[in-house]
Structures are given as C-alpha cells and as structure tokens.
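Predict both folds.
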Amino acid sequence: MTFSRLSRLACTKCGATYGVGPLLNVCTEAGCAGSLFAEYDLEPFPRRAEGRSPGIWRWHEVMPARSAAEIVTLGEGGTPLLKADRLGAAHAMPNLWVKEEAGNPTGSFKARGLAAAVTMAKALGAGKIALPTAGNAGGAAAAYAAKAGLGCHVFMPRDTPKVFRIECEAYGAKVGLVDGLIDDCGKIVAQRKDAEGWFDVSTLKEPYRVEGKKTMGYEIAEQMGWTLPDVVVYPTGGGTGLIGMWKAFDEMEKLGWIGSARPRMVSVQAEGCAPIPKALAEGKDVSVRFENARTYASGLRVPKAYADYLILKILRDSKGEAVAVTDDEMREGVVELASFEGLFAAPEGGAAWVAVKKLVAAGKVAKDERIVVFDTGTGYKYVE
C-alpha cells in the first residue's frame, strides 16, 4: 500500500482539478481563485491508525506527504479530549468536552496546519515561505520552517502581542510589523511573493494547511469511539479547522469508519469582528469585510476569511450556528475554564465556552447533548 493515497487537487469553487507535483496556491481558472482541496483514493481500508504513535501523521494514507522521509514534524497532534466534569456539573451539562490544543508545538492548533503546509512546501521545492498572521500561525510557520531549513517571512499587525513577534524571531523568521489588520498583511505577501521567491502559505491560499487541521476531526471521532459529537463549537478566524474537520467527516464516511450523521458546527467570533455571524444572519453566501475590527483575541481579528463561502456552507449544511461574544465575556470564559477545569485557555477558547452558554440559554443546544468545545491555544501568550 502506498504511504499516501493523495491523487489530485480540486477547486472548491469551480471543480477544476490539478496534479500534485507543482507548488500551487489557489485555482488558476479565469475569475475563480477558489481554495484547493487535496483529494485521495478513498477505497475503504481498516482504521489502521489504531496502534500507531499519536500525531497527525498517523493518518498518513489520507495525509499529503508521499513518504515518511518528506514529513517535517515537531510532534504535533494527538491532543486530549477532556471531559469537563466540574464545569459541566456547574451548568447541568453532563456531556461537555474540551478538545485541548494548547499542548501542540508552539502552543496552539496552528502547528497542525503548518506542519502539513511546510512539509509539502519543502517536498515540492519551496526555499522560502511567507504568510500574514494574527499571532499563532506565524510562530508555527517559523518553527516548522526552522525545522525544515526553509526561510520564513512573517507579517503581523503592529499591535499584535509582543510575544508572537519574539517567538517568530527566535525561530529565525524575518518579521514585518504592519499598520493595519491581518488582511493588510496578506496584501504585502501577495504583492511581494513573486519578486522575493516566497511561497505563500496563507490560510486556505495553499492546499495543505487544511489537511493538517482536518486531523482534529479524525481525532475526536476516534476519541469518541468512532462516533461524532452532537455539537462542535469552534472559534473562527480564517476557519481552516472548521473546514478541515468537515472534510475529515466526509472522508471517514467514504472510508466506512463513521456513518452519515454530522455534528452541528458552531462558528464563534468576537463581537468586534463578526463577519460570519452577520453573513449567516443575513442569509449571504459570502461575508462582507468587517470594518474597524477589534478584539483582544488576536486569532479572531480576521475581518474577512478567504474561504468564507466554505464556512457559511458548512454552517448551513450542518444546521449549525454562528455566535458573537464580547471581549469581557471571553475573559469570563477563560476564568471559568481555568478555575473549574485547570485549563488556561487562550481567549478564543474562552469565547467558545461562552458561546455554548449562549446557545443553551437560547434553546438552540440542549444541556444533555454531547458538546465539544475547542480551546485552540494556550493563554500564556496573552499575559500582556
């Protein structure tokens, strides 16, 4: 059996297909520029990951690296799914779980996506990578680029917490501070990448970050005995993880590992930067850039996700929701997760927990449903 069953890339907008060989960003069909997905030969095979070492590469048949030698890894993935007994009891929620991503390399779930992106960038011939970041993605990209021996150029808003800049520079990345938001940083990467020889690994502007993130879907299925929860609550900036998990559920069904039932997917954003809740409420297929975006949760300060069309479709297809929470509510959520469960969550994780309470109060989620809340990173990076 081949190490990976990767067969081609396909556009999520127009359906155009591409070979795996060249370095590609988005669909090149005229007027499209859709995000590209990796597709695999998904003939059923056993859950062979059982018994393998934990981590994202244990699912190598449905991951893009074509051999073990290509993999660039720092031990990412394999994070715990924790039963939130005390917090659940305090709110009469007997089936509350937290997927705790803070233990990943560089302290967040971004390690999953950047491990896969850097692996394939190096394998396909890139010498330097570049990306805009709200914080954690930059640190992960810099770390994996260092491991791979690639150059790394990171652009972040000037007011990003200082620890993220220090982290990137420690790994050897070149950091540019930008007066603006993450999309302003992205414009710099787009303008300079060809002249500088950078491969752009921006969120959903290359095919493989989503492959690393989808492993969260494989893990929660395995950790729940090859069933899926009723509700998945996910803090959403660029939305790669939410999109990736939905992709994983589809792959697992085709493999015969799970049935057709799906969780209701919940996207959580900050009230000061909530393009997805606004677009969903207005019945739109894409969002409008959220002006004057502001929130202390750096990972949620994304005024318009590149693949918002995929996020909104998933929310509708799953009969899910989009919830906005205030910064003060996030802080309260962080304190609750810490004081009840011993988890010092990033504000994004605090936001996800607050969203659960809001949905229960609104009668949109039942207290006895199986709820998985994602804490996407460590709170230690926000001590400023």
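Second protein follows, with its predicted structure tokens after the sequence.
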Amino acid sequence: MTSEDRDPDLPATGEEGPRSSSLPWAGAAAVEEEPVAEGGRERGRKQLPLWLETVLLLGTAVVLAVLIKALLLQAFYIPSESMEPGLVRNDRILVQKVSYWGGGTPQRGDVVVFSDPGGWLDEQQVPQARNVVAKTLETFGLFPTGGHLVKRVIGVGGDRVKCCDKQGRLRVNGTPLEEQDYLAPGSKPSLITFDVEVPRGYLWVMGDNRGESADSRVHLGDPGGGCVPVDDVVGKVFAVVWPLGHAKVLHRPSTFDAVAGGDSDPDQCGGERR
C-alpha cells in the first residue's frame, strides 16, 4: 500500500508510534508540567515572616479606616436626650459625608453632627482619650476629639427664622413648620421666642427635644450669635446602627419642602430674643 492508498482519516504511524499532535483527541497546544525542585517541592516565592505580614495588614487596615473616616463615614454616639425621640441617648449613629461633596451644603431638615463652635460644651462633655487604645486611635484621627454636637438644621444662610406664630409654630421665611413628626411628645416648638436672620455660610440648628436642648436659641447672645459655621459640619446623620432594636435610616421631614429660599444677608448671625 502506498501513502496515497492510505485512509486519510487514519493517523500516520511510524517506528516511533503515532504522533500525538495529530490525534483527533489531542489539544491544539501542549501542556507542560511545572518544574519540580529537588526534594519534590515546587519552587515558589519566599514568604514574608509572620510578624511582617501582621504589621502590613494592620497598617493597611489603619490607612483604609482613616480614608473612610475622612471621605465617607464616621461613627458617633448620642450623649444626651436632646434629639429624642428620633435619637436616643447612647444610640450609635453613622454620619455620611458624601451629600456635602462638591460644594453640597446642609439642607433644612438635615440632622447633622458638627464641631463645637465655641463654648457650647464644657470640658466634662468633651471626650478624652484616657487609655492606650483610645490615644492610639486619636493619633490616627479615629477617636473623636474636640467635642461634637448633633442637631437638626432649621435655617440655612439667607433664612429668617422666627418663633412663634399665633399657633405656636416656627416660621422659616414666613412658612410655618409642622413638626409633629419629629418633635418629642409634648414638646413645644420653643419656649424661647426669637427672630433671627442667618448669614451665608451659617446654620440655625435646634434639637428635637426642645426643652432639653441647648441649641442655637440658648447661644443667641454668644459672640457667634447662636449660628453654626457650615465649615464646622462633619456630615449628615443617615442611620442608627446600634442598638439593633432602634436601628433605622433617617429621612428629611417633608415639612421643609414648602420653605422657599430666603433673601436676607446679614453681616453676622444674631437677632432679637424676647
């Protein structure tokens, strides 16, 4: 039989046997075995010492925590009853900063955490790093220092906030606020009457438990006039995460939707307290 007489579908053979590359079940590319080192062990990269791996992991975790705190989220706890019933004493809350990126600013109705504008807290109310762990966290900016407060934004720059009308309601730019959804039961909008204009770049803030909140009204006579600089705002409270029985997401009350923008522009915060 000549080569021309062979069945073309049969594999070619020779003294060395069939060539595997021509077998119909053979792959198009050969697979090579990994080289084996002496003693049967695979050659690989030298592993880092355990202590060095631990240091690198801890360092990475700290860097990520600092970035998250600086750019995205920060956790706080509620130290008083001033924001009841929405936020109860010892609640653990998350504050997000994304809403105020790119020139965004706090809006009426937001619950915000802000740094003490000056004199709102005494030394006993300011957290202190008293142990090694807390001091280490403070070094990396993970332990809140300097004193922070949490209140609801009632007025923003350009607004006129007045209390109270004949029905006992707050008015912002002439629009009455219906605050039953978030005020503490039995709490009146304010026992302090006032009429203030908020400068650009500042906020007028009040607690939801008005009878237990030392907020903008109480500090109306201070050098800052009771207003909080927008630059002092850490972020907006968006969730209670602990205890689980009180966990929830916070929403902006609809009563603020009806408030039109104000057109006042005083040189400084302040107004009349009666």
